[in-house]
């Protein structure tokens, strides 16, 4: 082949090489593009798997936390059930002493007679005080009307033993829902219940004799025999209950026919104010154990039920508030001191300022030395002037 032929073939070879190079570059670009797509898919899948793994981890942690709470709740319920079983056994023992089966042997009747004699001996005994509280009410120093809320009858109160500032409201005389306001300011400013938290109780309540004491709600169950329910406000569970050992109970206040048991608190602890058909003219008083709801001691007081509208206990002395069927000015007209330190005739005759109608509830707070009252739908605070019993 001559040189001139080589020169003719050179452009053709160059063009062929360039075409191959272009095809190779296009092939490489296609492969790189495919590789980038696969890397992108891998990245998306990896991100999705990481998100799913994180969500699964959070879900597992949530389930573990829920399981731990349920375990604690079950443990608490088991402890509560054990306490209730113990309480039930005590109530069965009490009912057996009140309604014993026909004795098969003479020893059973003798034992029953001893138990009745012991109970009678404990009744109306002089009370040994737990504290050095020796104050009594001298007068009402001030009255503050906060607002008008809810029905004409009801109850509002604070925790009588704890440091909580929460306000608990029982609207009406029969319901199953308690309204809770975080502080006095919110209760005063808010005009609607939608601003309040709600606690739905497992059993409906009746009357206005309930009490919040040391993180627990003591309330009277509406249905069946008159039963005091101890309800834990923190975990919303029933801690204990007690059938009040009084046959044929009647309304404790003549002017408040919806209240059969008034649970009260003072410097000495927990009390129950009640009345029975056996002595229907006068009011009875009992000292309660806040932990077990056992009745430690009982008294028949000289305070009449007639024209009574409310009552509270201060330093171990029952103060009964009286009015008239046509509401006028309320007054403390009967005082019964379980320790015998204050004679009824030496107690001050305390008058409450003229208001709207009649008190449906009056709750004494021993920490603040004031009374939370409900008067015809108005919520009132009475601040009291105190003095020593020996100075009366």
TrEMBL record:
| Presence of the UniProt keyword Ribosomal protein in the record | no
For the Olfactomedin-like domain, which residue ranges apply? 132-388
Superkingdom in the source lineage: Eukaryota
Q: Which residues, by range, are in coiled-coil regions?
A: 57-98
Q: Which is one Gene Ontology cellular component term of this protein?
A: extracellular space
The signal peptide, as residue positions, is 1-19
| Biological process per Gene Ontology, one example term | signal transduction
Disulphide-bridged cysteine pairs = 133-315
Pfam families in alphabetical order: OLF (PF02191)
The places in or outside the cell where this protein is found are: Secreted
Tagged with keyword Manganese: no
Q: Which UniProt keywords apply?
A: Coiled coil, Developmental protein, Disulfide bond, Glycoprotein, Secreted, Signal
Q: Which PANTHER family match?
A: OLFACTOMEDIN-LIKE PROTEIN 3, OLFACTOMEDIN-RELATED
Membership in a protein family: Belongs to the OLFML3 family.
User: What is this protein's name?
Assistant: OLFL3 protein
Underlying gene:
Olfml3
């Amino acid at each position: 082949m001559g040189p001139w032929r080589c020169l003719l073939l050179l452009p053709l070879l160059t063009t062929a090489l360039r075409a191959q190079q272009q095809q190779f570059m296009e092939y490489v670009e296609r492969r790189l593009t495919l590789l980038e797509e696969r890397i992108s898919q891998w990245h998306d899948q990896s991100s999705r798997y990481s998100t799913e793994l994180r969500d699964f981890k959070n879900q597992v942690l949530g389930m573990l936390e829920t399981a731990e709470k349920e375990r604690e709740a079950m443990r608490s319920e088991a402890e509560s059930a054990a306490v209730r079983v113990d309480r039930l056994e005590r109530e069965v023992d009490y009912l057996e002493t009140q309604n014993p089966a026909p004795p098969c042997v003479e020893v059973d009747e003798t034992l029953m007679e001893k138990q009745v004699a012991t109970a009678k001996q404990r009744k109306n005994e002089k009370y040994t005080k737990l504290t050095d509280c020796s104050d009594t009410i001298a007068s009402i120093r001030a009255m503050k009307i906060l607002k008008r809320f809810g029905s004409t009858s009801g109850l509002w109160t604070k925790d009588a033993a704890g440091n909580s500032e929460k306000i608990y409201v029982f609207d009406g005389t029969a319901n199953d829902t308690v309204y809770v306001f975080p502080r006095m300011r919110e209760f005063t400013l808010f005009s609607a219940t939608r601003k309040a938290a709600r606690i739905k109780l497992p059993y409906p309540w009746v009357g206005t004799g309930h009490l919040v004491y040391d993180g627990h709600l003591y309330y009277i169950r509406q249905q069946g025999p008159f039963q005091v329910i101890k309800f834990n406000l923190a975990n919303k569970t029933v801690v204990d209950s007690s059938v009040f050992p009084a046959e044929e109970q009647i309304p404790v206040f003549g002017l408040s026919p919806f209240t059969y048991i008034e649970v009260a608190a003072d410097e000495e602890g927990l009390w129950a104010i009640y009345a029975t058909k056996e002595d229907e003219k006068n009011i009875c008083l009992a000292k309660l154990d806040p932990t077990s709801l056992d009745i430690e001691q009982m008294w028949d007081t000289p305070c009449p039920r007639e024209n009574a509208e409310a009552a509270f206990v201060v330093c171990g002395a029952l103060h009964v508030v009286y009015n008239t069927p046509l509401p006028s000015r309320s007054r403390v007209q009967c005082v019964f001191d379980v320790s015998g330190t204050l004679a009824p005739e030496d107690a001050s005759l305390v008058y409450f300022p003229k208001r709207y109608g009649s008190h449906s509830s009056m709750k004494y707070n021993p920490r603040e030395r004031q009374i939370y009252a409900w008067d015809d739908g108005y919520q009132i605070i009475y601040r009291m002037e105190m003095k020593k019993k020996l100075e009366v």
